[in-house]
Structure formats: structure tokens, C-alpha cells
Amino acid sequence: MESRITALREKFEAELSKIENSAELESIRVQYLGKKGSVTDLLKGMKELSNDERKALGAKVNELKGAVANKIAEKTAELKEKEIEREINSMPEFDISMPAKLERGSYHPITLVQREVERIFKSMGFTVEDYSEVVTDYECFESLNIPKHHPARDMQDTYYLENGQLLKSQTSAAQNAIYKKYKDALVNDGVPIKAIFPGRCFRNEATDACHENTFFQMEGVMVDKNISISNLIYFMKTMLSEVFQKDIKVRLRPGFFPFVEPGFELDISCLICGGEGCPSCKHSGWLELCPCGMIHPEVLKAGGIDPDEYTGFAFGLGLTRLVMMKYGIKDIRDLNSGSLKSLSQFTDDE
Length: 350
Ligand code: FA5
Prior knowledge:
With 350 residues, the chain is an alpha+beta fold. It has helices at residues 2-18, 22-33, 38-45, 51-90, 109-123, 137-140, 175-189, 229-244, 297-302, 319-327, 340-344, and strands spanning 127-128, 134-135, 166-167, 193-202, 214-224, 250-254, 260-269, 286-295, 311-318.
């Protein structure tokens, strides 16, 4: 019996050393440890031995059984490792430290023109202010001399929140806060208020080639002693000639806005059709670009500024329309389309 145990161990070790895959290993496991396996057979044969022999040999057979099971477990782990190694070696080579092959993004044309206009006004001593897109009725209308039920509100229907706030329909909504922010410096230190505030505006209206429900304006105000319409015209002309780098034909006509008196519409000759008329200018040859005027005394008062002592001008530049004119974009909706093919052609590689 003892020699059978030794022979079986040697046979098992010899066969195990030739195993190369898990299927062969499983078959050898069944061959030795399975119900009808050689080691199981040896254990069954123990019944025929005397008590003393069983004691002595039983331990050896059990030791063989344990050794076979351990060697099979070791071989399983060894084969698994080899399989993983084979899999790794069969993978195509790649370098995880290689940079991704992504195209560089570019700035939106509105961002580029906004920055350009900001640069121009900053060089003339204006500060650039940031303002919320969600505002109160007071900020957007009442402080601007547009009380509830005033017909001027019909021109600027917007989107209302359940708490009564609204998405601002005009950058003029920031005027009151700007006056309050700088009035002390104006009154106490004689520092004129010169500020521009770009922002996204919203209107609940049908879209067409020159109207969007979401667009950008750039508001500007200047308040000091003796500010007149001449100051307003000077700043508008300087800004436009810098943006377009050429003389632009403009016209000023009367316009009504409850927060300015007198009020004007500043139009520019349509640069898409050269003034002949097209869908972008509603076939008029002119594009309404920058309403403006002298700040209404009631609006100054609401901002804490004495209108008997100070005057000022305000303008509300249609930034999105300015972008259309600068880049010859025929349909305003292209600017919100998210189409990189359309947008990237207008942008510099900044
Ligand atoms: C205003 O919004 C006034 N707050 C402007 C103003 C400011 C007047 C300060 C006086 C003093 P208006 O609704 O006309 O005005 O809009 C101003 C400009 O924004 C327009 O000339 C136009 O260029 C642009 N604009 C208005 N509505 C849209 C729209 N739906 N889509 C694209 N641009 C628009």
C-alpha cells in the first residue's frame, strides 16, 4: 500500500508538470480527486486494512490527498497568471501618457466682440460690471420708470419665475444698482459714474432672422455734472469705428423708452446688404442697434442721485446684432445653434 501511495504521488507530479491549460488541469483533478479518482480509490481501499495499518497508512493517504489538492490550487493560480500575461501581450501597444487628439476649442463670436467692446470702453475710463440674469420687477421695470400696467412692458414680455422674479429682458435692469453703488463717490468725491454692463437678455417673442428669445446686450451709463447728448454721440461713434475699423453710416431718430428723455434709436446701415434691404434688416437697409438717450430724472432719483445737479446718458447696445454685422452673419439663430462648423469660422485662434 505504501509503495502505491509513493507511485501515485510520483505519477501525479509527473503529469502535473506537463499541464498547460485549465481544461487539462480540471481533467487531472477529476482523475485523482474525483469520486472515482485514484486518491479516492486509495481511501476506499483503507476499509480492507487492519486497524493498525489503517492508522499508519490513513495519515499518509490523507497527506497525499492534501498535497494533490494544494498542488492543483497552485497550478490553477499559475495558469491564471499566465493567461493574464498572454492577454496583456496580445493587446495593441498604446501609451497612456500620450496627449488626446482633440481639436482646440475657440471663443464664441459673441464673447470675442464683447471683449473687444469692453476693451474700447475700458480705455475710455468705463468700469465693466457683472449683473444677475434673474432680477426683480423693480430692477427690470419699476426703477426704470415703467410702473405696473405701463404699455412699455408689452414690448418686453419675458419669462417669470414662480416667486415673482424674472429673467431680465434688458440690461437696463442693472442701472438702479449701478447708480446706488457709485453715487457716494459721485457726490462726495466728484468721480463720474462711467460703467458698462454686458449681459444675456430674454424675451418671450417669436424668433426670426434678427430676433432671438435669448440674446446679448451691452448697457452703458455715464453720469456727472453737465453731461449732454454730445457726450453720448461721441462715445457711440468712437465705439463703432473701433469695432468695425472703418467709418460706419449711422442715423439717430427719436425713440421712446420711459427711462430716457429725450430718447433715440441709433441705427447703422446694414452691413449684410450694404443698405439695400435684406431679411437681416427687415428690408429697411438699417439695423436698430443701439437705443439710447439722456437718463430720465425719475430714474436718477430712484438711484439716489439728484437730477437737478447731475445728468447722464444711457445706451443699450444690441451686442448680438453687432456680432451679426461684424461677421456678416445673416441669421441671428446661427449664433445659438451650437453648430461648431458655423461658429468656428468666425473666431480667431486666441
Ligand atoms: C432696450 O432693451 C432698452 N433697454 C435699451 C436702452 C438702454 C434704451 C438705455 C435707452 C437707454 P430695445 O428693446 O430696443 O431696448 O433693445 C435694445 C437692442 O437690443 C435692440 O436695438 C436690438 O439690437 C437688441 N434686441 C432687442 N430685442 C432683441 C431680440 N429679440 N433679439 C436680438 N436682439 C434684440
